[in-house]
């Protein structure tokens, strides 16, 4: 037997889980008549929960769009996914507040069953994720603003600093945002260049969301554009590490390039457009290596080494 209160809560849960559900469907799920369903709906409305009823052939009950109803109830698997997502936020390199992340983790953890909580505490105690490049982190607010402009098809104006430190003012029709090898990129149509372009978020110095809108080109595939551009962009790099393949694979994710075993070590091959960033990355691996190509990467390493010597010998 259902307790009346639990039935009311079950009605609410079913309404939340679907865009719309009819009275007969609710009655069948809860083994009651439609008149009783209407009475429970009235109970929910009396306590301030905005359940709306649509009359007609395709009518039914739904929560008013935009209404937020706490508390949320998660299964163990759903809570695990949320916790792991929060833990991985530093890996995503988004400039989100550490206080906000820790607060969300604590709230989710408090409502978990003991066994699930112990399992996730074991993960949080032993999982350490370092971001690729601290300086490349975009602000969470920037991601939200740009995503809103993309969704609403609104043009934006940006001041953009190029790889060679040249700043240009551009009007852009934004199509999407992607993460690639430690950086975040905005892709869209550049009105200045009259062509599709991508822009690193950490090089966007100013952004203004405009009221004017645009029509997105139906034949432009943003995902395909990103894959093509970043699989072919940049200079070809070949770096050979002196070590076993298994040891190098543990240090270097597959997104950084192709690893091939050689008679003298392991060869890393990839296209890369930022030699300064790659030089810093190679130094952080703590693996002996030889640069076969390009010479620009070798020069970037020399500049980095000179800088380290200056810092180490400064009085």
Describe this structure in words.
With 315 residues, the protein is an alpha+beta fold. The protein folds into four domains: 4-63, Arc Repressor Mutant, subunit A (Orthogonal Bundle); 76-126; 136-230, Roll (SH3 type barrels); 235-313, 2-Layer Sandwich (Alpha-Beta Plaits), CATH 3.30.70. It has eleven helices and eleven strands. Strands 6-5-4-3-7 form a five-stranded antiparallel β-sheet. Strands 9-10-8-11 form a four-stranded antiparallel β-sheet. It has a two-stranded antiparallel sheet with strand order 1-2. The longest helix has 19 residues, at 295-313. The termini are far apart.
Which SSEs are present, and which pair or pack?
Layout: H1 4-17, H2 23-30, H3 34-46, E1 51-54, E2 60-63, H4 76-87, H5 98-110, H6 114-126, H7 140-152, E3 154-161, E4 167-180, E5 183-190, E6 195-200, E7 204-213, H8 222-232, E8 235-241, H9 245-251, E9 258-262, E10 265-272, H10 275-284, E11 289-293, H11 295-313
Antiparallel strand pairs: 1-2, 3-4, 3-7, 4-5, 5-6, 8-10, 8-11, 9-10
Helix pairs in contact: 1-3, 2-3, 4-5, 10-11
